[in-house]
Amino acid sequence: MKHIRLTDVTLRDGMHAVRHQFSLKDAREITAALDASGVDIIEATHGDGLAGSSIQYGMAKEPEEQYLRTVCETAKNTKVAALLLPGIGTLEELKRAADCGIRVVRVATHSTEADIAEEHISEARKMGLETVGFLMMSHMTALDILVQEAQKMESYGAQCVYVVDSAGAMLMDEVRQKIAALRHSLSKDTEVGFHGHNNLGCSIPNSLGAIEEGAVRIDVSLAGLGAGAGNTPSEAFVAVCTKLGVETGTNLYAVLDAAEDIVRPKMHQPILMDSNSIMLGYAGVYSSFLLHAARASEQFDIDIRDILVELGNMRIVGGQEDVILDVAYRLAHGHNQESHVVV
Amino acid sequence: MSKLKAGIVGSGNIGTDLMFKLLRSNWIEPVWMVGIDPNSDGLRRAQKKGLQVSSEGLKSALEKGAELDIVFDATSAKAHVRHAKMLLEADIQAIDLTPAARGPYVVAAVNLSEHLAASNVNMVTCGGQATTPMVYAVSRVVGVPYAEIVATIASKSAGPGTRQNIDEFTQTTARALRTIGGAKTSKAIIILNPAEPPILNRDTVYCMVDQTGFDVYERIDKSIRDMVKHVQTFVPGYRLTRDPIFRDNLVSISVEIEGLGDYLPVYAGNLDIMTAAATKVGEEFAKHRAVVKNTM
Q1: Given an 8 Å threshold on Cβ–Cβ distance, is A316 in contact with B193?
Q2: Exposed end of chain A (fewer CB within 10 Å): N or C?
Q3: Cβ–Cβ below 8 Å for B163 and A115
Q4: Quick one: DSSP state of residue A316?
Q5: What part of A 273-302 touches B (C-beta under 8 Å)?
Q6: Residue contact A87–B193, C-beta within 8 A
Q7: Per-residue pLDDT tens for B219-254?
Q8: Which CATH architecture has domain A275-333?
């Protein structure tokens, strides 16, 4: 029987879907349910990681340290992770997060820029944190480059490297190829993981393909709560794994109940594959752009699909939320208009 | 008045681009380029342009009797800590393009003449040179309780120094937004984009303002456009990508920088603004010395 470990991202990626507005009470309830379910790791931070609270990405409801402390104090059995994107968060915030009680850090870069994470990964190891490298927007990066970037993260000290389908744009063959390539080129002590988004409805099949190619860590989220059409839904994935005889260590009824009774009532809108989130996957655009693009589309009265396709054409990467407004503005006004705008 | 004699330490992309700008200066004459790699393209080009070169570091150049009025340091923060000491002892004014921050910050478009006689000034970061003027343009009209900037640069324009010390970039830039830009609190974010062909450097600047209303927006808008014109006097490729957007107490400004392409490619506007700003500061030092000399 195959054993894999689940990392639940409801309290991190799920933050995108609630505009980073989870309260301490929300965090406590979700953590308690996850802690009882048997998942291995609970990731919690602003959707864009430590120090993500900003005008660019949206202000979080709660101060970062209180949010993390609440999750760490509520989780009795489960390890808590923080996400860190170098360029947004710094070692200073990581140290504070460690003081709050996190035991795992996932250091994320765009899938061609691993070397900006050298300091953070190696320092995290020195701090005694379990350290994971997270290669975002892996669909944009050719196989050989992705392997090199994964090897860089491994050389800095990452104990696990993830293929991250931030745009929910990858299909099964691509996931298999990229996971297999990492599995074959990294040392056998380094684990490989997969983080999916469901924009094209492929999050579960992609995650299963990843497991078959040697991934042992899979990201899931209760009721799929996450950016775009959400992440791989925990409850469905645990059900599928149980049927296939893949051991997740997670209790099916516990995640079913947590998704249904605790997370769904907290949703701002249902997580589903609607026209907009499908377009994210289709155009290969960072899933967290969804709500920002929806807002810009409203503000400038432009079809959101045109905005998303243009962002895909421009090969915009994660974190460039500011370009969404520029694109909407440009589509609405054309260039060189000499008057300022009040909206 | 003869030109100030300048040394450039660091024969990489920045040092070499800086040399081409200094060669055009009416106030400064680059006479030495000092590197550590004898095969570097920068040293080769410097030699071709008639500069004396050394590949054995600053110490050896000074020992060889390099007579310099001013030194531009385009090495690394770590190396500059050593260089700063040597230059101080040799009584040579230093313009530091690394994040070492031994001396006070200078943002060429804002506080150019504040530290004319300082023995060492620091050029903050490329993002700082580009975005601090915009925050200042807003804060000279209204109070700015919070400023946030997002610098997006082409992956190819981020050298190993930036990559290894990315925290330094965000922390130093954020500090300059407060101390020179005039914001009460601040945050800086940097994003690397690997697209091919490389994207132009762009910076988004958000300012929260403590007054709103159409008249206030008008005044802020004018101040921003005046500042853009001012920056263009030494960085011609600095421009708004769109009009400033005002929404309640938030102003959103977006600029891009097309470099001059002296040595670095035009997309690396982030590096171009750094070398252009350093040149501008050096020239200001030279003018100041001329005035002091003439009045004595």
Answers
A1: yes
A2: N
A3: yes
A4: -
A5: none
A6: no
A7: 999 999 999 999 999 999 999 999 999 999 999 999
A8: Orthogonal Bundle (1.10)
Check CB contact under 8 Å for A314 and B214: no
Give A104 or A313, the one with higher predicted confidence.
Answer: A104
Which of A87, A112, A342 lies closest to B170 in CB terms? A87
Q: What is the CATH number of domain B126-265?
A: 3.30.360.10
**Interface contact A314, partner B, CB < 8 A:** yes
0.90 surpassed by pTM: yes
B187 reaches A (C-beta below 8 A) = yes
Per CATH, domain A2-266 is 3.90.550.10: no
Residue of B nearest to A341 (CA): B245
Size of interface A-B (CB pairs under 8 A): 107
Provide the pLDDT for residue B78: 87
* Residue from A54, A92, A116, A137 to probe the interface with B (highest B Cβ count within 10 Å): A116
User: Which chain A residue lies closest to B156 (C-alpha atoms)?
Assistant: A113
Residue A336 at interface with chain B, using a CB cutoff of 8 Å? no
Strand pairing class (B250-257; A41-44): unpaired
CB contact under 8 A, B191 and A317: yes
Domain boundaries, chain A: 2-266, 275-333
At B281 the pLDDT is 97
What residues does each domain of chain B span? Answer: 4-123+273-295, 126-265
pLDDT digits (tens, 9 = 90+) for A268-290: 999 999 999 999 999 999 999 99
- Contact residues on chain A for B186, CB-CB shorter than 8 A: none
Choose from B226, B229, B242 for mutation: most chain A CBs within 10 A. B242
B192-222 pLDDT tens trace: 999 988 999 999 999 999 999 999 999 999 9
CA distance B81 to chain A (A): 20
Q: What is the pLDDT of residue B99?
A: 83
Closest by Cα among B202, B211, B4, B226 to B95: B4
Q: What is the DSSP string of chain B?
A: -PPEEEEEE--SHHHHHHHHHHHT-SSEEEEEEE-S-TT-HHHHHHHHTT-EEESSHHHHHHHTT---SEEEE-S-HHHHHHHHHHHHHTT-EEEE-STT--S-B--TTTSTTTTTT-SEEE---HHHHHHHHHHHHHHTTS--SEEEEEEEEEGGG--HHHHHTHHHHHHHHHHHHHHTT--SEEEEEEEEE--SSPPPEEEEEEEE-S--SHHHHHHHHHHHHHHHHHHHTT-TTEEESS--EEETTEEEEEEEE----SSS-TT-HHHHHHHHHHHHHHHHHHHHHHHHHHH-
Question: Range with the lowest mean pLDDT among A303-317, A322-336, B174-188?
Answer: A322-336
What is the rounded average pLDDT for all residues in chain B?
Answer: 94
ipTM: 0.94
pLDDT per residue as tens digits for the range A169-188: 999 999 999 999 999 999 99
